Structure formats: C-alpha cells, structure tokens
Amino acid sequence: MVDIERYESKYQLNHVDALQIQGRLKRYIQPDVYSGPNGYVVRSVYFDTLFNKDFYDRVQSLTNRSHIRLRTYPQKPDTISLEYKEKNGITVRKRILPVTHQQALLLLQSDYSPLSNHRDPFARMLYRKMTLETYRPCVLIEYQRRAYVRKENSIRITFDSNIRVSEANLDLFDPNIPMAPVGMQGQVIMEIKYQDFFMSDLKAAIGPHPLRSEAAGKYQRARMIYMSGRNYL
Predict the structure, then answer these.
(1) pLDDT digits (tens, 9 = 90+) for 23-48
(2) pLDDT surpasses 50 at 101
(3) Distance from C-alpha of 136 to C-alpha of 114, rounded to nearest angstrom
(4) Taking phi first (over 0 means left), then psi (-120 to 50 degrees means alpha), and beta for anything else, what does residue 13 get?
(5) What does the domain layout of the chain look like in residue ranges?
(6) Which fold has domain 2-230?
(7) Contact (Cβ atoms closer than 8 angstroms) between residue 141 and residue 183
(8) Which pLDDT score, from 0 to 100, does residue 233 have?
(9) Any residues with CB less than 8 A from the CB of 231 and at least 6 apart, and which?
C-alpha cells in the first residue's frame, strides 16, 4: 500500500492557456516518465453508497470527505489499483492498494471478498467500509492526462482533458465503451499537488494567467450529467 498526503488545488483552463502554461513549465519541471509525447489515458470506476453519500458530500463542499475508485491505464492494463482518497481540510490523503485483474473483476461485481483476508490492514479497512456502507460501482470516468513532476516537495502538475463518462457500462477493461463528454470542448483541468510548499519558480511560470479555481472534481462533474435528471438537490 502506498500512502500519500499532500496539498492539492484544481483550476479550469481553456486549451490555449493550458498549452502556454505547459510551454513555460517545461523549463522548470520534467514530464512524467509515463507521459509520452501525447500524455496518457486514465480510466477509473468510482464507487459510492446506495444513497450516493460521497457525491452529496461533494455537492455540499464538506471539509472532510472521501471517495473510492478502481483505476487502470489502458496503455498499461496490468497496472490496476484500488484507491481511497480523503480530503481533510486543506490537505488530501491518498492510499493506493495494487490489485490483480481477477480481483478487480470481483470488485466491479460488488464482491469485496478479495479485501477481507488481505495481509494489508488498509485492505481490510476498505472491506469493512465498502460492505457496511453498501458501496457499489456507479460511474466510469476516462480522460487524457499530461503530467509533470519535480522531486522537490513531491511536486506534480497534471493537465486533464477530453473528460468522458459512462454510467451504462462500467467495464473498466472494455476499450469500446460509448461515453458522454464532461464539460465544454477544449476545457482542461489543471491540478497542482505538492507537500510542504509550492516552488516559487513554478508559481511564477503559471502566474501570468488568471486562474479560475475549480471546486468540483471530475467525479462530481461527471455524475451531475446523469444526476441532473434525477432532481438530486
């Protein structure tokens, strides 16, 4: 299990501004080793309770909230992880548990038995939480990501675009799922993640652009496409 605690902030950009910021950042920060020339695809299935507690916690902007997701990368299909992300005030803690393809298939069927006798206490904690609070898979989200990293303060800056969603088909490993777009065409979500403090040279490289803070994460934005027809508020 990997355990990360850091500060995170999100900003909404248009395509042109995102490219300009990336161009300036390249002087100070390196692309993620997995990025390649065009970035990479991230695909996740999110879990929520029968009454969508995690979704409503986000809608209400609660200071302390969490979500659970099963994540993979189509270009690296053997890399699969179950992630538990908690926001506690101004910091975010993310715990990551690697799982096998067979374990992932069971989790997607709301069978959490692979976690019940796991040697990692974190897995057993998730088993109790997901079972007692009736979690089930509810939405699949996919997007294109460009990522940049710097070892000082574990800095990571990501640019996510072409965000798309499906609630009809939650097969994490099906490459041909029809999906609905999330947000306007050309919209990019920039996320800044770091420990302790953000480096001043990177702040200056980003700074010339007026940034629009993005309170709603991808999970909330994606689910609202379907929940809006259900009078969720």
Answers:
(1) 999 899 999 887 777 899 999 999 99
(2) yes
(3) 15
(4) beta
(5) 2-230
(6) mRNA Triphosphatase Cet1; Chain A (3.20.100)
(7) no
(8) 43
(9) none
